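quick one before i forget lol
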Amino acid sequence: MTSSEIARSQREPNAPGHGKHHHHPAARPERTTTVPQEFRQLLACLQVLDELLGLGGRTASFTRETHLLGAVPEFDSMAVVAVIAAIEERLGVTVEDDEIDGATFATIGSLVDFVAGKLAATSGS
């Protein structure tokens, strides 16, 4: 193919030789990502804590093993009440006083497990 034919094939898609020297990657199937429910619950809890306690993004480094009560200075008894209210409002669950104790707020994991249990009970009813 001469240079003029190559130039013409680039200008005119139906010209002879068009596409012979061009590589078109195969279309990639569209990927969908499913976020596991436990991860969504973890993110919801971290978001509530970060916003209500004014942690400025510190929760980004928190894991399920991160201790809350006694370890995060901003997480005091007033914060516990605010976190419970926010969880009820945002996740549509009701938390009774006798359902919670210090163990619920011991770690991120214990809080997420509590929220998961509440959501499971709500969806099952």
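fyi The longest helix spans residues 37-53.
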